[in-house]
Model the fold of this input.
Amino acid sequence: MKLSIELKCPSSAKWLDAVMADFDTFLQDHANCERKASAMAMSFVAKFPDRLAILPKLIETAVEELEHFQQVYTIMAERGVRLPHEIEQDAYVNNLLKTCRSGRTERFLDRLLLASIVECRGAERFRMVYEALPPGDLKDFYHRLWASEAKHGNLFVELALQYFDEAVVYARLEQMAIEEARVLQQLPIRAALH
Done:
């Protein structure tokens, strides 16, 4: 049984060029994404406290994402980069949220699968950043993040399989992955994770 998805389109070299040309801006966005990822995991805990089988993993993920935020913040501080005053809206995630169905059970499944897709895209992009960076601490950091994001991509599918039939999970995951590729290809290129 596979626990992750194959992304339907690769991130572009132009995206990587934008990130490498303005890495400090990328770090600011990356820090914001880690804060939002931690909050997202905790939102599952708050909205679905009856889903006891998955609560420990969600709490663990929320803590891990917050640790990633702390690590990115440390890198930013060393470079003299400040946190932005506001967390910008993420057009990528907001467009993907529009694909989530509205029924409580359907939305639960879709939000788990959306989290998987976002984490898989993050893993792909962290790998690209890691491969582009020169040897050193920053490269090592993004190598570790790549592995962590890939693990999280698998985790959210695993959590979905605790409550939904495998055929239902993978059929919906396929639909959402196709939509994710469409959303990604319509976004402007910028020095941001999404």
Observations:
- Residues 13-186 form a domain with the Ferritin fold (CATH 1.20.1260.10).
